[in-house]
Specification:
Length: 328
């Protein structure tokens, strides 16, 4: 595990990542990361969402959040449903291309998630819920709403939020819930998404513009290792909604294209906000840590065709160069 983490760190730094949000970790792995940080074997920062196992709940709810210099544990990741590819995402109406009455999978009972939400709320922990289908999202918004009851600063997140019933978007605003989305999902799934859920529902899938409009922010991630590790692919997918070959020409559901400024914020300051870290990172300002990358092109200006091939020249954490291209 130690070797795997060191190898993973090498790949992350080369891709230009300075903090990784890692979802659903066991205490054993969290302790190992902490130990490797203390020994200087790991330098990348980790925002670890704990798996809500009995061991983790007993430990963290009793001891409170763990806030070390490079490791934070103040959230639990809970799975509501599966994914679209395998028809495991939970839908309000059956799949358009599945067996009759197939709605997908609920991976945790409502009561279990409700209990977790109550415990997390009372102990001031964040919840990050994996919800992909419209039914999973509705269930999670219901459960979040029961605890949050209105505008708040708990920063509870819905991870993926891939398909929403149009009635439900506004509840992200009502309860200040952060949509944490991965723009390459749109461009990986676009070839078959309409087959799975049909032409009507697909209008409300990967709807990043509508999600961003709720709280004027959205956290963007890669979802590696499900998707590739490269944040520049995330940036490209967010601002073009095209695949690496430039397909489709006008972008997939182009109403949901984000501006370059929005995509950059989604990967920096809004991501920091979604981790409660905006006072220390997420922008280059006096008083914050110097976590940054230097790229060989200005991704805010170059032709979109050149974004994916832009190279990370340097990655810096706390002002130290931790990756330099061509040297490893
Ligand atoms: Zn997930």
């Amino acid at each position: 595990m130690r070797n795997a983490l060191i190898a993973a760190q090498k790949n992350c730094l080369a891709a230009g990542l300075t903090t990784v949000d890692d979802a659903g970790l066991e205490k054993e792995v969290i302790d190992l990361i902490d130990d490797m940080h203390q020994k200087g074997e790991l330098i990348i920062k980790v925002y670890a969402m704990a798996n809500p196992s009995k061991e983790n709940l007993d430990y963290f709810l009793k001891n409170g959040p763990l806030l070390h210099e490079r490791l934070t544990v103040r959230s639990f990741k809970v799975y509501v449903d599966g994914a679209f590819g395998s028809r495991g995402a939970l839908l309000l109406q059956p799949y358009s291309d599945g067996e009759a009455h197939h709605h997908g999978l609920l991976l945790n009972e409502k009561k279990i998630i409700q209990d977790l939400a109550e415990q997390a709320y009372d102990a001031d922990f964040q919840l990050c819920a994996h919800a992909i289908g419209d039914s999973a999202n509705r269930l999670m918004l219901d459960i979040y709403g029961e605890q949050l009851r209105g505008v708040n600063d708990k920063r509870w997140r819905i991870e993926h939020a891939q398909l929403l019933n149009p009635m439900d978007f506004k509840r992200f605003k009502e309860y200040t819930i952060i949509p944490s989305v991965q723009p390459t999902h749109a461009t990986s799934d676009m070839y078959w998404a309409a087959d799975r859920i049909g032409a009507e529902r697909v209008k409300y899938a990967y709807a990043y513009r509508t999600l961003l409009d709720q709280n004027k922010m959205v956290a963007l991630g890669t979802d590696f290792p499900v998707e590739e590790i490269y944040p520049l692919h995330t940036f490209y997918a967010a601002v073009t909604r095209k695949d690496g070959k430039g397909y489709p020409e006008k972008g997939y559901a182009p109403a949901h294209v984000l501006s370059r400024r929005e995509a950059l914020k989604g990967m920096t300051i809004w991501a920091a906000i979604s981790n409660f870290e905006e006072t220390e990172k997420g922008s280059l300002e006096k008083g914050k840590v110097a976590d940054f990358v230097i790229l060989d092109h200005d991704i805010m200006k170059i032709d979109e065709k050149r974004i994916r091939s832009t190279k990370v020249k340097y990655t810096a954490i706390n002002g130290s160069i931790v990756y330099q291209s061509g040297t490893n």
